[in-house]
Amino acid sequence: MTKIGLEIHCQLTNLESKLFCSCKANYREFEPNVNICPICMGLPGSLPRLNQKAVEKATMIAMALNCSTPEKIMFFRKNYFYPDLPKNFQITQLNIYGDTSVGGRGTLMVGDKEIRITRIQLEEDPGRLIYEGSSEKNQITLVDYNRAGTPLVEIVTEPDFENPKEVREFLNILSDLLENLGVSDPSLEGAMRADANVSIEGGNKVEIKNIGSFHDLEKAVHFEITRQQSLHSRDIPIIQETRHWDDKRKITISSRSKEEDLDYRYFLEGDIPSIRIADNIKEKLKSEMPESISSKKQRYVSKYNIPPQVADVLSSDKFYSDLFEDAHTVENAKEVANIITTDLMGLVDTREKRESSKLKSSHLKDIANSIQSGKIARNSAKNALYEIIKTGKSLSSVISEMDLGNVSDESELSKIIESVISEENQAVEQAKSNPQTINYLVGKVMQRTKGKADPKLTLDLLKKKIP
Amino acid sequence: MVSHEEIQHVAKLMKIELDDPTIYERVDKMISYFDILDSAGVESEEMSFTEIPLSELREDKYIPFNEKLIEKLNYYKGTYVRAPKMI
Amino acid sequence: MNLKISALEFTRQVKSGNLSAEDFIAKTMERIQNIDGNLHAFLSLNDKAVDQARDIDKKIKSGEKVGECFGMPISIKDNICIKDTKTTCASKMLENFIAPYDATVITKLKQQDAIFVGKVNLDEFAMGLSTEFSAYGPSKNPWNTDYVPGGSSGGSAVSVSAFECVTSLGSDTGGSVRNPASFCSTVGYKPTYGLISRYGLISYANSIEQIGPLTRTVEDAAFMLNLITGLDPNDNTTVNNRDEDYLKDINSGIEGKKIGIIKEMIGEGIDPSVLSATKNAISKLEGLGATCEEISLDMVKYSVAAYYTITATEAGSNLARYDNLRYGYDFSVEGFEFNSYIKKARKKLGPEVTRRMILGGFVPSAGHAGKYFLKALKVKNKLTREINDVFKKFDLLISPTVPVLPFKIGEKINDPVALFLIDINTVTANLTGKPAISIPYAISNGLPIGIQLIANSMDDKLLLQAAYALEKTVVLPEVPI
Fold first, then answer.
1. Domain region containing A17
2. pTM
């Protein structure tokens, strides 16, 4: 049986400052080596200053993944030389003296399958390396330390996955969960990364590192399974090793025996005492946690009678569910859900589109209410939505500017209906014996009015005129 | 007795060049002295640690360093820090 | 002008207008010029010191508020960062390192109008107890310049003892303040772990080291502590002392106090003159109304091995950052592969530091941690339990600061284990986080002997009161320089 385990690194992108200093957590907006200070540059004499909120957010992640949370957490040094590590050690967490990382054992459901979480740890992200130079001789490594010290949460799973599809599903659910928690924006470049370990029946465990995106992770795992199966079928032993994902060639490559040379000499970080997280603090954090995706979904279905598939889409995307929560009332909930999942989705399907969108929840509320009161037809509503996203104008001004309002003036509509009745003799006759045919006539009225006729009024008038 | 190979291995890890021939003997002497720890009889000792409450930690606030640090680090000049090639 | 006055005397006189800070600083700088070529306490001097003193005199004359130091000349061990000033750790690795920020103790002293006359010598990265391991050459003991001044804060002790400044800040990882204080006949004080911020102190073994003052008198040590102690948001290991005034009631005496004599620190290998000075001090304390009784700390036997194992491990990690990529000296990375470059760059580390790096890679490594590092941590833990038990019955502990007299330069440099054992009486306070102080007590054959008192955590005030009482029982000859 194939076994796949994951190590997911998630940046706490919603924090203001880094894990151990007051430099900005969002390093993306800076020129190289500008978002740095003596602490994150590891200058002689500097000491780490742990970010309280980072511990809180990491603890929330642990709680959301049903992990145990210890009474006190500890930090350790992982010692190795690398140019992206300013101190040549990384401050991370480990369970040397009992369970002292932010999260212990937990679980996450992927469909009907339970994936076990081994542990969750809070640690610092290293800087970024750029390899430059073409020939062997002038090669050089450029380092940007803006990212160094950014708060990172590592989530380690048991090898509970059997195929790349399960991995993919898990990562989707996990990234929705982290976004919903408000701890991270997974759509930011580099905010979520993962390493995998893969073993097939009868073979040793192989770790794959350096995978740039979740998309590549799926490919890397797939490649690795195929590679191992092919070795196995030829009776070639699968050795325990670390392999790197080659992004260009889309294959995994052995990292030679580099790992054997490492000895991390883990020991307690004396500059950070153990941090006590009292039960009342945990209770407080729990009460501050946003409603979970599954609870939202359930509420949407049971309280508003929204179809499960629609509720699923709505609840798992924080952008949509935030809009929904603000826009809906008991009366218009279904309509708001409908607008979001049928009309809005295609219009804001990328990060860029969402950022530039000028749509507010109040717009959605207005649109839903206007549809329900017959002020605007669904078709017109979609056009209005498109315009509002672009301009941010109010619904009423969009309706009047684009002439999208329904024809709800009775005398105007009567004229149109009478002309339809005179042109559709046959249908009118049929309608007298077969009530279904009246819908055909409504459709004709709609055609004439380019969809703007108030459907309810149209039906009423037709019924009156065709006894 | 700590073998030369072991010392060479550690030196590699610690990125230290062993060009002083007396180092093997001196390091061995020091480590041999540490063997006294074997007779301390502390195997069953339970470790204890200092603790502080979560509330004493730093508030999450962005405060940029008040100077352009990269320009003050004298050896390096430029925007990126230059490191040797990685193999 | 008398450069030999204490810190309290200096501040009194300048405050009252009897003494000009500028004159005193100018004289001090002159003295440094005259005698430091021989003593080599200083690694660098502050060429603006006299100007700064003149500004303080002006402030005093115009009635402006002046800080409590009133322009007092202080020397700073060269492993404590002063902004825009070279901070070398007495290493070639940092020969060009200019600190871009102030250590917390420096910020506090600047606010109190102290004047830093210069940065003083130490064993490279504070690893040593004689300053012989300084990359810039050893300092000399002012009592006899053939002898070591102790270390690692040797430059601090020399500068205070030879009247090149009024007080000094050193750092104490295993006795590095108390040992040179003892060897040079000054007061040397290591406070409770956490009482003084370490922010800006370049780490050697961060879990046990503290900044501490070297002064002429116990009162001066209390005065200095008042100025530099306190919770620091930049150091998560600092503790709250609730604004204790350590100078107030320093003359309370020690009547009725129970003092334990640590048996393991007056045993094998102790110099007879050191032993007799210790016995003499004990009888003086009894004369002042204290009761003294021998006690045993079983783990002291293993404390030096534990100390060197722990410090090597932490140093191996703390000094890993010196790879010459972000700061350091001019040595191009071009044409090098990573590992070979870092190895070459780190050749600037001196021989003792290099050896400690090897130890620090060895004792906590996967194959050896169980035998060395983890055991050392357990010894530390057990020693702490033992000493805490003793403090349930005793107020203070006493021992000689160093079991031997100062030795000649070069005498022990090639015998690492002999050097280890000199630390036997001082490392306990570091491993257990307790406050300890060395008080100048006797001169034997022209060489100083210091007595050490240790108190329980946060009992620093009591410690200083006892040290003050003991200090008052002796009159010592003046340094022959």
1. 3-283
2. 0.92
